[in-house]
Automatic annotation (TrEMBL), chain C:
Keywords: Cell membrane, Membrane, Oxidoreductase, Transmembrane, Transmembrane helix
Presence of keyword Oxidoreductase: yes
Organism: Candidatus Thiodiazotropha taylori
InterPro entries: ComplexI-like_HydComp, NADH_UbQ_OxRdtase, ND/Mrp_TM
Top-rank taxon: Bacteria
Pfam families cross-referenced by the UniProt entry: Proton_antipo_M
Annotated PANTHER family: HYDROGENASE-4 COMPONENT F, NADH-UBIQUINONE_PLASTOQUINONE
Cell location: Cell membrane; Membrane
Limits of the NADH:quinone oxidoreductase/Mrp antiporter transmembrane domain: 114-330
Name by which UniProt lists this protein: NADH:quinone oxidoreductase/Mrp antiporter transmembrane domain-containing protein
Keyword tRNA processing part of the UniProt annotation: no
Any one Gene Ontology molecular-function term assigned to this protein's record: NADH dehydrogenase (ubiquinone) activity
Annotated GO CC locations: plasma membrane
């Protein structure tokens, strides 16, 4: 049964090969190659939910030597998000790239990206993590410059350099760990690592590298141009998934591997940076003149929230309270993933129809593209953190944790961030609802509009009303004693 | 029976939610189907609410629970207070829907409008049925979301501006409410609405902390209830189409705030405990200031809907005032005004909409002689206005009577009675000139935009009958206040259950 | 007899008001008061009915006082209905005379038959507010008078409302019969005096009256001066705690105010130039007497039992005579008044001046008997006032102004009611002639001539002013020289105040219809503020 774990990784890889060989049919192959892993992921999730964490040692070698795949609650949740988002985006992309010349390249890279993502979420040792991280970064860069414009190339180049820098730093940290403890298997390391200079230096290096990749303030500057200039489907996955991958790793490292090593001070530093990111990102989003740029800045802000959980998590003892906060974090990340991808897809639709995405000229959108406008509104609800979205629940629990731990200082940040998010979302909606002829003639609902609205609905309704699943899955851990 | 008690609250929500969602997907031109859906939903809801009233009266428990997250439950629960608000919303929704169908005929974006309209009512009913503070916050925010497109419906720069201001206020208020709710939630581990309040059971909690939380909650709710100085959005929001204004002022938004304050005082803190904390006197002072301030501002408005808006600011605080005075009589006054103000104010806004629709009248100074031209509408308006002043036997008098009794009973007459009397006089000062113009003056200039020239009736039926119906209702619930199942009787029932000792 | 018929006097006019736009003949309005007449004549005293589900429970009962008020009130209402000009009954008439007339009638019936305070209040409010339409006239000044009337009425109504709240809380019941169970709270007493004091035009609260009486249409003045004004008195009779000892300050205060009313009405009345204004001040003087008597009864519980029925009789007499005088004046101002009219008016005036062998004289002698020789000075004063004012009234009839509108008024109706009015309360045994009753006559005549001289002097003064400042806008002064009351001085204070307050004032468009600009209203507010501080100081 554990062999299941191979499929989410293997299926996209195989179809990528297929797409490479048969570029003319790549649209179909691409969608199928995204859909099949989704099925696999669903199976895996069902298994994990039913019977606890899964582990698979590839090639039969014991963990530590070979490639170990592990699935626990956290990774399953990330996998689910990744599979669902990529599925929706793939459907959208099949329209978006229907007749593009470079669609063959796109689909190969796309499937590789999925492979890397799934592998990353399933990897059980640090070296594999590095490899998948690198693969993820590279495919993301190439995808980001598919648009071919000058700006996108420039942004992608910067993205590449920083991504490489980040993964290199991560690699050094991994090397230090190997030197210090003689193993890279995370389950083993979780018990082995003790507070000391090696651990501190390794943790700082690895975290630093990941922070670059997850674009925490002040290391965020590469993100807005890269995300804003990529083709819409790519922006969607970049913002929704790729940055989350780095975040996922940070969570793994901080909470499970270096549990005893992380000091409150370090967590507070990260939290402060997150807080600044929230305010600054929201403010920049409010100032942004272009839709996609706004979405990208909003990503910076939303990631800030996630990092603000760090000091809260660090302050809580292991147990129900911490799982509550961790669940809230994951829920926020998931909601953001779905909402932001929906948002980018909608932005892509508008951009295709209108030929631009200047917010001030979007009048009439609500009339000619009602479903898309609705999608933006729904996604916006999730981004602000209003009910019934998952982020509302997450923020509720975050505030609750705030009061429990007595860390009042974050309260104004959350408040300001929420209000600013409301401001930029409704500024956009105000323009979209205004009369005008900014967007082309009225058209019926297209195939490309449906994935976006589904994603938005997942973020606002599904994750709102069925969020309890998150808290049920999160405690199922493959590490630190499993299912603490 | 068990299943019904679980499903009834959900059914009441869905009876407007499902039509709302379906309407979104209807093409603009299918107005018959849309009307059918709307009315069907409204009637089904009315039916279900009827069952609910019967059940709650006989002390049946209607409750739906849905586990959302650790410590967070989505609870729909029907008690007497919810029933009061639910029946008000349901009834007025039906009337307003009919009115809106007539009002918006031949205008664009009707599907969108009616969709959000139904969602707005869903949120309001959800607020009423919310069984704990968390659920209340959820619907409170949903209400903000559902009303924003309604206010911005016309899409004109003023409409967008009004909607933006509305949003600024309500998002801010919602945030404060949420912070307060989370805080309380963290301290107590879940705040269910229980008649008589729950907080007095947590003797170990710091009193000052509870006072601060109360302040947060009231600030958050006060935005929607338009307590001074948080009322700024309400006069701006009058740019909305008349049915929206009517619903906004009578049922949905403003009432949601007032209802929330009532909930917090009675079912969270418990009125005796709140009085013990000393927070009620502050709230009472704010309510008093709001009552006077709103009336004084209304006096200087020439724009009819703005005058009505400031009147709402003033009148809704009667409810808050009733809640802030300790004693069952004041409670009855406040609660019954929740219904009475709704019925009367919706009449006034319907009439204002009719004036604008038929004759292009937007200002008080243009209303000379309108009474003879539109007698049905003007009669309805007059009844509503007299009720607002508190002239017997219109419903407003009953509220004022009980508020006054409560104030005297609680020994608060020194400041409450002057406020009530001054407010009545001010109400007279800004409503009676309107009636005077309408009935006793003759039109000096032609109407701004006469659209009904040559028609036999003053207005088409869907526009004329809603205000006439609600005006008759306002008269009847005042005149037969002591009859069984009247709002007054419900308010007495609730007050009896709240002061259980 | 079934108590349900007690509902007819209020209910029938209300139902008729709903269809009033169809009623184009004044006989409809006439017949609206028939149920009241019927009840007043035929219904059993002591019958009552309770309707628990209307308002907060309504209680009706008929007692002897109520029966008399109902009966004689009905007569006046019926007669007044006949005085409504036919153009006000036509379908396109401006104003809402029919509706407001019917509603005021209903309110009047309601309050008379009410057995609980709330029902009384509802009737009082319905009557007072509807009467706005009866005071309302076509001229600018009449509208203004109506506006001032409305403000005063609203204030009175609210004062009554507040009083009811205190009574309800202290007594726990709204029924009149439970009222004496508890000592009345001082604040409620004060509010009652204020609320009804406005209706009966206590000095200081009377400013609405002269203008309303001079400017309102005749049918309006008729019902206003008769049944409606007496409703205020009835309110006192119903609410005030006569049987229980009270702080003497209350009774004395009311007594003093009453005396002031007599004096004020008399002095200002005799210098008026319009017959209607004289009648108006005569009302103030008369109601001053009533107030003083009520105040006296409050302080003398042992006398109250005998005194109150006499007060009722006196009130009934005035209820009939004053409207008859007003309506007679209307007849007099027609083109061809009958030769019989002047003696008839003289008879009425004599009756009002309490001349012996008239109903007024009889009532007065009954009163002095009931008083047992006390308050003789007041009675004398009141007698002088009556004579002087009636003299002035008759004197002014000579300068007959023919009114513009001529309507065929059914004079026979008036004539029919004349003997009733003159000889009410039909207490023949009190028809005694004593020389001392002529004392007021002499003094009153003297005062009347003094008034004539004063009037001349005032006129010359005014002429001089006119000559001096041709360009000055003396309009305000002229109006108020007719009715020299506090308002002209107040106006002088008010104008600069208004200018100072201009920046924060109102939108000019909506301003025009606000009554706040009227000095009388400001005077009222000033009074209220004084009373408010007084009661606050009592509280603290």
């Amino acid at each position: 049964m554990n062999n299941l774990l191979i499929w989410p990784v293997a299926l996209p890889l195989l179809t990528a090969l297929l797409a490479l060989l048969w570029p003319r049919r790549s649209n179909w192959i691409g969608v199928a190659g995204t859909g099949l892993p989704l099925l696999a992921v669903l199976l895996v999730s069902w298994q994990v939910a039913a019977s606890g964490p899964l582990e698979l040692a590839l090639g039969g070698w014991a963990p530590g030597l070979g490639i170990a795949l592990r699935a626990d609650g956290l990774s399953v949740l990330m996998l689910l998000m990744s599979a669902l988002v990529t599925m929706a985006v793939a459907v959208y992309a099949s329209v978006y790239f229907a007749h593009a010349e470079r669609r063959g390249e796109f689909w190969v890279l796309w499937l590789l990206l999925i492979t890397a993502l799934h592998a990353l979420f399933l990897s059980g040792d640090l070296f594999n993590l590095y490899v998948t991280l690198e693969l993820l970064g590279l495919t993301a860069v190439v995808l980001a410059c598919l648009g071919g414009s000058r700006e996108s190339l420039q942004a992608a180049l910067r993205y590449l350099v920083l991504g490489l820098l980040g993964s290199l730093t991560f690699l050094i940290g991994v090397a230090l760990i190997y030197a210090g403890y003689g193993t890279l298997d995370m389950a083993a390391l979780g018990d082995a690592i003790v507070a000391g200079p090696t651990a501190w230096v390794a943790l700082s290096l690895m975290t630093g590298g990941l922070l670059i990749k997850s674009a925490l303030f002040p290391l965020h500057f590469w993100l807005p141009p890269a995300h804003a200039n990529a083709p819409a489907p790519v922006s969607a996955v970049l913002s929704a998934l790729v940055v989350k991958a780095a975040l996922y790793l940070i969570l793994r490292l901080w909470l499970e591997l270096f549990d005893g090593v992380v000091t409150q001070a370090a967590a507070v530093i990260v939290g402060v940076l997150g807080a600044i990111a929230v305010v600054w990102g929201s403010w920049a989003a409010l100032q942004a003149e272009r839709l996609k740029l706004m979405a990208a800045y909003s990503t910076v802000a939303q990631l800030g929230y996630l990092f603000m959980f760090m000091p809260l998590l660090a302050a809580l003892p292991e147990g129900a309270g911490r799982e509550l906060a961790l669940g809230a974090l994951v829920l926020l990340a998931l909601t953001h993933g779905f909402a932001k991808s929906a948002f980018f897809l909608a932005a892509g639709i508008i951009m295709q129809r209108a030929g631009h995405d200047r917010i001030a000229e979007l009048g009439g959108t609500a009339r000619s593209l009602p479903v898309t406008a609705f999608t933006i509104a729904l996604a916006g609800v999730a981004l602000i953190g209003l009910p019934p979205s998952g982020s509302f629940l997450a923020k509720w629990q975050m505030l609750s944790t705030l009061f429990v731990t007595g860390q009042w200082v974050w309260l104004p940040v959350i408040a300001v961030g929420t209000l600013l998010a409301g401001a930029y979302i409704f500024r956009l909606l105000g323009h979209a609802f205004a009369p005008g002829e900014g967007v082309g003639p009225s058209l019926s609902v297209g195939r490309e509009e449906i994935p976006a609205v589904l994603l938005a609905l997942i973020a606002t309704l599904l994750l709102g009303f069925w969020a309890s699943a998150v808290w049920e899955l999160v405690p199922i851990s493959a590490y630190a004693g499993g299912g603490a | 029976m068990m299943t019904m008690s679980v499903w009834l609250p959900v059914g009441i929500l869905l009876s407007s939610f499902i039509p709302g969602v379906l309407i979104f997907f209807q093409p603009e031109e299918r107005h018959r189907l849309r009307t059918l859906l709307n009315l069907l939903g409204a009637l089904v809801k009315l039916l279900l609410v009827g069952v609910l009233i019967w059940g709650v009266f006989h002390e049946q428990v209607f409750e739906t629970r849905w586990f959302l997250a650790p410590g967070l439950e989505f609870v729909l629960h029907a008690d007497a207070l919810s029933v009061l608000f639910v029946s008000l919303s349901t009834l007025l929704w039906l009337v307003t829907t009919i009115y809106a169908i007539g009002y918006l005929e031949q205008t664009p974006h009707r599907s969108r409008f009616f969709g959000f309209f139904s969602l707005c009512v869903t949120a309001t009913v959800g607020l009423a049925l919310a069984g704990n503070l968390f659920t209340f916050v959820v619907f409170y925010e949903l209400l903000t979301l559902a009303t924003y497109p309604l206010i911005a419906h016309k899409g004109s720069p003023e409409a967008l501006r009004g909607a933006r201001i509305y949003l600024r206020y309500t998002l801010f208020g919602g945030l404060l409410l949420m912070i307060g709710a989370v805080w309380l939630h963290t301290l107590t581990g879940g705040v269910e609405f229980v008649q008589g309040g729950v907080l007095d059971q947590f003797a170990e909690l710091d009193r000052d902390l509870l006072r601060w939380i109360f302040l947060l909650l009231i600030l958050g709710l006060g935005v929607k209830a338009a307590l001074v100085p948080l009322h700024g959005w309400l006069p701006q929001a009058m740019v909305a189409p008349a049915p929206v204004s009517a619903l906004l002022h009578a049922v949905a938004v403003v009432k949601a705030g007032a209802f929330g304050i009532v909930r917090v005082i009675y079912d969270v803190y418990g009125v005796e405990f709140a009085a013990e904390l000393g927070v009620l006197s502050l709230l009472g002072a704010v309510a008093a200031i709001t009552i006077i301030y709103g009336s004084v501002k209304a006096l200087s408005q020439d724009h009819l809907k703005k005058r009505l808006a400031y009147s709402t600011v003033s009148q809704v605080s009667y409810i808050v005032l009733g809640a802030a005075i300790l004693g069952p009589l004041a409670t009855i006054g406040g609660l019954v005004h929740l219904v009475h103000q709704g019925v009367m104010k919706i009449t006034l806004f319907f009439a204002a909409g009719n004036y604008a629709e038929a004759l292009g009248i937007h200002r008080v100074s243009e209303m000379d002689g309108v009474g003879r031209r539109m007698p049905g509408t003007s009669l309805a308006f007059s009844i509503g206005a007299l009720g607002m002043i508190g002239i017997p036997p219109v419903a407003g008098f009953i509220s004022k009577w009980y508020l006054g009794l409560g104030a005297v009973e609680a020994g608060a007459a020194v400041w409450v009675l002057p406020v009530l009397i001054a407010s009545s006089l001010l109400n007279a000062a800004y409503f009676l000139p309107i009636l005077y113009r309408a009935w006793f003056k003759s039109p000096a200039t032609p109407w701004p935009a006469d659209k009904t020239a040559g028609c036999a009736r003053e207005l088409p039926d869907p526009l004329l009958w809603p205000p006439v119906t609600t005006a008759a209702l306002a008269l009847l619930i005042g005149l037969f206040a002591a009859a069984p199942y009247s709002p007054l009787e419900w308010a007495e029932l609730i007050a009896g259950r709240e002061y259980r000792q | 007899m079934n108590g349900l018929i007690l509902l007819l006097p209020p209910l029938v006019p209300i139902l008729m008001a709903l269809f009033a736009h169809r009623l184009e003949r004044r006989w409809w309005l006439f017949s609206a008061a028939l149920p009241a007449l019927f009840i007043g004549l035929l219904a059993e005293e002591g019958s009552g009915i309770t309707i628990p589900w209307v308002l907060l429970g309504m209680h009706f009962a008929l007692d002897s006082t109520g029966r008399l008020f109902l009966l004689f009130g009905a007569l006046i209402w019926m007669l007044a209905a006949l005085f409504i000009p036919s153009r006000d009954l036509a379908p396109g008439a401006t104003g809402y005379i029919k509706q407001t007339f019917l509603l005021a009638l209903a309110g009047n019936g309601l309050l008379i038959l009410a057995a609980d305070m709330l029902t009384f209040y509802v009737g009082f409010a319905l009557m007072g507010l509807s009467a706005y339409g009866l005071v309302w006239g076509r001229s600018q000044r009449a509208r203004r008078a109506a506006r001032v009337y409305l403000v005063f009425t609203l204030v009175g109504e609210l004062a009554l409302f507040a009083a009811l709240l205190f009574l309800m809380v202290s007594g726990g019941s709204l029924l009149f019969e439970d009222l004496t169970a508890e000592p009345m709270p001082a604040i409620a007493l004060a509010l009652l005096l204020l609320g009804f004091g406005i209706k009966v035009a206590l000095p200081g609260l009377h400013l609405w009256l002269p203008r309303a009486y001079t400017l309102a249409p005749m049918y309006g003045v008729a019902v206003l001066s008769g049944p409606m004004m007496k409703a205020g008195l009835l309110g006192w009779l119903r609410f005030l705690p006569f049987g229980t000892p009270l702080e003497p300050a209350w009774g004395n205060g009311l007594l003093l105010l009453g005396v002031a009313g007599v004096v004020l009405g008399m002095l200002i009345g005799v210098v008026q130039r319009q017959p209607r204004a004289v009648l108006a001040y005569s009302s103030i003087a008369k109601m001053g007497l009533f107030s003083a008597l009520i105040g006296f009864s409050l302080n003398h519980p042992q006398l109250a039992g005998g005194l109150l029925p006499v007060i009722v009789l006196l009130a009934l007499h005035h209820l009939l005579v004053k409207p008859m005088l007003f309506m007679g004046l209307a007849l007099w101002q027609r083109n061809h008044p009958g030769f019989w009219l002047l003696p008839a008016l003289l008879l009425l005036a004599l009756s009002l001046a309490a001349f012996p062998l008239t109903g007024g004289g009889a009532a007065k002698s009954a009163l002095s008997t009931a008083l047992g020789g006390q308050l003789a000075g007041l009675l004398l004063l009141s007698g002088i006032a009556g004579v002087a004012l009636m003299g002035r009234f008759l004197w002014l009839l000579k300068g007959r102004v023919i009114s513009v509108q001529q309507d065929p008024i059914p004079a026979p109706g008036w004539l029919l009611l004349l003997p009733v009015a003159v000889w009410t309360p039909f207490s023949w045994q009190a028809f005694i002639f004593e020389w001392k009753t002529l004392l007021p006559l002499v003094a009153g005549t003297a005062l009347f001539f003094l008034g004539l001289v004063c009037r001349r002097w005032l006129d010359s003064l005014r002429l001089a002013m006119r000559h001096k400042g041709q360009h000055l806008n003396l309009g305000a002064v002229q109006i108020h020289a007719d009715m020299p009351d506090a308002s002209s001085t107040l106006r002088q204070i008010w104008l600069p105040l208004k200018q100072a307050a201009q920046p924060l004032r109102f939108d000019p468009a909506s301003n025009a219809s606000l009554a706040l600009r009227d000095p009388a209203v400001w005077w009222l507010l000033l009074m209220l503020a004084l009373l408010g501080t007084l009661s606050l100081s009592l509280f603290i």
